[in-house]
UniProtKB/TrEMBL annotation:
Keyword Kinase: yes
Keywords, in A-Z order: Kinase, Transferase, Two-component regulatory system
A GO BP entry: phosphorelay signal transduction system
GO molecular function, one term: kinase activity
Protein name as catalogued: Histidine kinase/HSP90-like ATPase domain-containing protein
InterPro entries: HATPase_C_sf, HATPase_dom, Sensor_HK_TwoCompSys
Pfam families, sorted: HATPase_c
Species this protein is from: Nonomuraea longispora
Lineage of source species: Bacteria, Bacillati, Actinomycetota, Actinomycetes, Streptosporangiales
Ranges where the Histidine kinase/HSP90-like ATPase domain occurs: 5-88
Length: 90
């Protein structure tokens, strides 16, 4: 796992702290056929689509650099989930 990917997930946590007003944050790391899945979810204020911005673009670029992907699902008033999938080395 690259430093960029770990920094990205740190940025997701930082965004929860700075912007979400969440009461609960969940962090999950799972391994599967698609690779290593890292998820940060919160029950905060969410934000309206489209999901854009420099921070999101940097996060997506970090995962794309290693052949992975990043998705952001958010619903205003219900929270946000950031999921990154990174291929596992064999």
């Amino acid at each position: 796992m690259t430093r960029g990917v770990m920094t990205t997930m740190g940025e997701a946590l930082s965004n929860v702290e700075r912007h979400s007003r969440a009461k609960t944050v969940s962090i999950a790391v799972t391994a599967g056929r698609s690779g290593l899945r890292l998820t940060v979810s919160d029950d905060g204020k969410g934000f309206p689509a489209p999901v854009t911005g420099r921070g999101i673009a940097r996060m997506r670029a970090a995962f794309a650099e290693i052949g992975g992907s990043l998705s952001v699902n958010t619903v205003p008033g219900e929270g946000t989930t950031v999921t990154g999938v990174a291929p596992m080395r064999r």
